[in-house]
Structures are given as structure tokens and as C-alpha cells.
Amino acid sequence: MVKQQNSQSILSIFAAPVGLIAGATYHFRALIIFVKNPKLISYIIVPILINIIVGIILYVGLLLPGINLIESIFNNLSLQFDALISQLPTWLNFLSYLDNILDWFLEFIIFMILFLIIGFLLVQFGVILGSPFYGQLSEQLEKIKTGTLPEAPPGLLASIKDIWRAILFELKKIALFLGIGLPMLLLNFFPGGSLIVTIGGIILTTSIICLDFFDGPLERRKLRFREKLTIVHRSFPAYVTFGLICQALIAIPIVNFFGIPLCVAAGTLFCCDRVLPKLLLDAQP
What we know:
The protein is an all-alpha fold. The protein has one domain. The protein has helices at 2-23, 26-36, 45-86, 94-129, 131-146, 156-185, 193-220, 225-234, 238-251, 255-274, 276-283. Helix 1 packs parallel to helix 9, helix 7 (193-220) crosses helix 9 and helix 7 (193-220) crosses helix 10.
């Protein structure tokens, strides 16, 4: 008994770093699956076209006005700071250089946040509009990995229920984002709150992104929203690195058009390896 406990404790020590590394590998594994099974590419052609159309709308509608607004704000702040520097002794002129460095750094951070926001919106619209194709892609990948699929009830009533479940899923994601994100912003007014908001924001967006990309296998099993969220968090720490890679792929313009289908495939592979076996164990009496 003692030896068994010791072995479990040793496994738990190595589980975290192994999980962190494993979570970051599934996008590469998905690429390998596509190379070995070229027929799967047919399931992502239409979603890529949808992503391109939605992406152009988002970048034109949000990115260009956002860049102009950011540059306008920083130009005004720079002019005000230069006017303040001109009134100081000459030996403090070095502050103008610090101001330029700080402006560049802050603009870079804000631009990255803007790209992340647009990428996040692209995922939400792209996954919804391309859901019939992503669903078929996920089914084919699950067949390749497990050899079986859960039986789907036939009929019009079942289809209506699926649509209603999909609508509720999106509404609950919005409620989760607003219910946690908005109160979390208030922490910015407290000392050290910005760091907490940054970390909390990464965790929140990573969780929602994982909900999107894990949804194929989980929805086929008709799991409730809370159960899906629990499954995501039970996959810690692998889901963190998986979600961070997804955020990187969806934040890069043009890359995200192809990155979203890749993340859908990677999420299915992740679930087949790390989620479905646990669900089977939990279902056993």
C-alpha cells in the first residue's frame, strides 16, 4: 500500500511538466494526421473560405479604426509629455528617450491585445458558421483515433434539440465571459490588480477557447455546459499550453484562417487522448 502511494506521488510530480509539454504538441499531431489522411482536407476548405471572409470584415471593421485610435491617443500623450519635458532642466532631457521607449512598448502590447481580440472574435464567428464541416472533421478524426462514435438519435426533433443546445452553449459562453471578465476589470483600481487581471484574462480566454475546440467530442456525448467546463479544467496543465498555442495561432493575421481548422482537429485529438478515457472510467459503476 505504501509503495502504491509512493508510486502515485512520483507520477503526480512528473504529471504536470509532462502535461504542459503534451498540451503544446497536439497542433503538430493534427498536421501529421492531415498529411497521412489527405481526404480530411476536404472538410476544412469551406471553413477556411468562411474564415477569410469573416477575417476581412473584422480586420477592416476593427483593426484599421483601432490602429488609428491608438496612434491618435499616443500622439496626444507624447505631445503633452514633450511639453512637460521642455519645462524641466536640460539634464532631464533623457526622459524624452524613456518616453519614446515606453510609448513603443505600450503600443506593442495594445496592438497584441487588439490582434488577440480580433482573433478571438474570428474563432467565435468562424466556428459557428463552419460548424457543420468542423463537426464532420471531428467525427472522422475520432473514428481514426478510437474506431467508434457515440450513436446520434435520428429525426427532426433531435436536430432541433441540437440547434437549441448550440445556441445555449454560445449564450453560456458569453455569460461566462461577461460574468467573470467585467467584475475582474474592477481589480485594475487596486494595487497589483493589473497583474491579476492579466493572468485571470489569459485563464478565462484560454478556457473559452478550449471549450470551442473541445466541443466536437464533448457535444457528441450531450454533456452539459458545466460538465464541459469541468472537463477543461480537469485537463490542467495540458489545456493551458494547448490553449496558449491556439491563442498564438488565432492572433496572427492570415495564419488564423488556417489555424482555426487546425485547432479544431488538435482539440479532437486532445479529447481522444486525454478526456474520453477519463469519461469512460467515470461512467463505469
